[in-house]
Design goal:
Length: 157
């Protein structure tokens, strides 16, 4: 099991604002979604098994999230080109933000040391934030099971 990351942000804190280019070539800012619940999920890499399961689970529940007035945004440090391919391959109906400069992952504290097969490296921890209509963090999931996570988040709305 992955070790839980120590996050600086807590539930009730104001969510750090951000602006990034998303799949589809749009510029998206957190402030665009004032008055809505925003599911901001951070994932390590496009087209990898866990990340694909997680993205597809959000895709499969997309209409249910939409009915509840929630917006889904995926974030990784992959390039826009990588995101475009990932969105296209799996018909993802929500934008993926390209954070190549690591500004969003660092603002949310999800960039850090990881361990895989005995090797330490820097990467994105799989963490999800539910940001309320008031711009405050309502819920944080510091440990995520990719297959079950979309249901878990839906249940919290």
């Amino acid at each position: 099991m992955a070790k839980t990351i120590e996050l600086n942000l807590k539930e009730g804190d104001k969510a750090p604002s951000f602006t990034a280019i998303s799949s589809g070539g749009n510029t998206i800012s957190l402030s665009d979604f004032k008055g809505k619940n925003v599911i901001l999920y951070f994932y390590p890499k496009d087209n990898t098994p866990g990340c694909t399961k997680e993205a597809c689970a959000f895709r499969d529940e997309f209409q249910a999230f939409k009915k509840k007035g929630a917006v889904i945004l995926g974030v990784s440090t992959d390039s826009l080109k990588s995101h475009e391919g990932f969105v296209s391959k799996f018909s993802l109906p929500f934008p993926l933000l390209a954070d190549e400069e690591k500004q969003i992952v660092q603002a949310y504290g999800v960039w850090g040391e990881k361990m895989f097969m005995g090797r330490k490296y820097m990467g994105i921890h799989r963490v999800t934030f539910l940001i309320g209509p008031d711009g405050k963090i309502r819920r944080i999931w510091p440990q995520v099971k990719p297959e079950e996570h979309a249901q878990e988040v839906l249940g919290a709305l």
